[in-house]
Prior knowledge:
Blueprint: H1 2-6, H2 8-18, H3 24-39, H4 46-53, H5 66-83, H6 86-96, H7 102-118, H8 122-127, H9 129-140, H10 145-161, H11 165-169, H12 175-188, H13 190-206, H14 215-227, H15 233-249, H16 251-255, H17 259-272, H18 281-286, H19 289-294, H20 298-313, H21 315-329, H22 335-347, H23 353-358, H24 360-369, H25 376-392, H26 396-414, H27 419-434, E1 437-438, E2 448-449, H28 458-474, H29 478-495, H30 503-516, H31 522-541, H32 549-568
Antiparallel strand pairs: 1-2
Helix pairs in contact: 2-3, 3-5, 4-5, 5-7, 6-7, 7-10, 9-10, 10-12, 10-13, 12-13, 13-15, 14-15, 14-17, 15-20, 17-20, 17-21, 21-22, 22-25, 24-25, 25-27, 26-27, 27-29, 28-29, 29-31, 30-31, 30-32
Main location: cytoplasm
Protein name: TOG domain-containing protein
Coiled coil: 535-562
Amino acid sequence: ETAKEQDxxxxxxxxxxxxxxxxxxxxxxxxxxxxxxxxxxETTPKETxxxxxxxxxxxxxxxxxxIVLHAQGSVIVKVFAKLEDFRTLLDKIxxxxxxxxxxxxxxxxHMLDILVDVHIPQELASEYISSFKEIFKQGLSDSDLxxxxxxxxxxxxxxxxxxxxxxALQFSDIVEGLLSIMIDALxxxxxxxxxxxxxxxxxxxxxxxxxKEYGTTLVDVVSQIMLNTDFEDGTRSSAKEILLSLANxxxxxxxxxxxxxxxxxxxxxxxxxEVTNEDDIEEWAKEKEEEDIxxxxxxAVAREALLRFSRIVGENITIEASIDLIKTAITDEDWKKRxxxxxxxxxxxxxxxxxxxxxxxxxxxxxxxxxxxxxxxVQYAGLTCLGLMITEQAPKAQKxxxxxxxxxxxxxxxxxCYMKIKTQATSAAVSFVRELIQVDEQGIEETEREVGxxxxxxxxxxxxxxxxxxxxxxxxxxxxxEEVLALISCIATLIEEKFAVFYPKFMxxxxxxxxxxxxxxxxxxxxxxxxIQTIGFxxxxxxxxxxxxxxxxxxxxxxxxIFSQILTSDDIKEExxxxx
Length: 580
């Protein structure tokens, strides 16, 4: 900074000379500093940069390491951009793209990529559109793969930079060539191939019409990459994201692709079968629910992709592609396929709600079958599927099939199985009860409650809750604590005054949790917060009941005092879940 203030011109000349230092680290650092002090500031006069303009291309040495060449290329582009001399720069880049040395040809496309990032004026892009197309085609047909990949990235960047879709569509005839390069790159250098996948995602997002004529080929290529377990997880995930981006922007184009049903959906299913901890059930049982949600392995990303994709393309295509696949999977001898079948069915429950409701008996039969599977992981997936299906087919599913569903759920909740499975059974019970409460979101109509579907199970279900909550507290299992509290809250809200008889069974224990549980760890804070919510639901449910009214009044006073202490405590922060 001091040297710049004393003699900016001299410092720039010295730093410029260092751009071509024989030491790669020094040269690379000089490029970084030159951009920082002279190109990323408004204080550098154009006249100062013009002194060096003619010398810029002299620093390029094909023998230098790629990292140095790329850094030098970045400096050159940004100097010309600073001078707004785009035409001269483009002419120079075109000249470099025809160089006999592959490293220089690669550099030319790297510079084009940077130029697009810096911003090419749209009028200039339009004026040079034929030249751009020619230079891109030239690079895409180069004999050197590195040049091809660099050209691929520059082509993608240029296309996505175009705001005029008509201009972008002039490049539609090179899409097939791009697909071919993507395949070649993945075979030779997966990292380079992954970069081409990410470029495809961008093109599908900005100009989906480019793929109208190549959709079938795209589905085939994407599906093959997804199925290839030799590739890294991130590569396979990026492949499916191409179709998701295309479907999101051009659902009509994607719906017409017949091989979605034969290639893409089965590829998603195959990825769902690729589970973690395949041979270690105990390790699987220890995995926390939040860890399941945030994972990025093929199984997890495929489930999430299925949910998104089915919402976009709709139920007709999804059901046609999926129903036979599901029926075959859930009867397979391989537990991983059975598990995948139930997850798959559960994750299309929302998008295929209407069609699945037409034969509700068959839908519920398929959804509930996994609940009694002998393999714990399949049983867990079956419970997940059932909970999701109940949510979408409520309240008809509860009213018609409560006799088949509730006893089975309570049996699992009472059993000596993994805590993780008990938690999922409780979660399914929450879905069952919660969806019997139909709340008008506009606040115009009164809340409707379908109490009949649960009347015969209330006693047993609440006894299950009491036992499970004790077990969850003793074993410090937050996920089950949360689900049990949610279930108690839902039951109280559903049966209202009738909950008064159960009030003494739960309220004293809930108050003790607030009084005795420390407010230190995240789990402790969440437990206290969830307990406070449940107390609120219970008190609201029985506020008009005369039964246990004396205890209700005493508890209300006690709770107000406790809440006042919480709100005035120095330990309570604004973001604490207890006060939100």
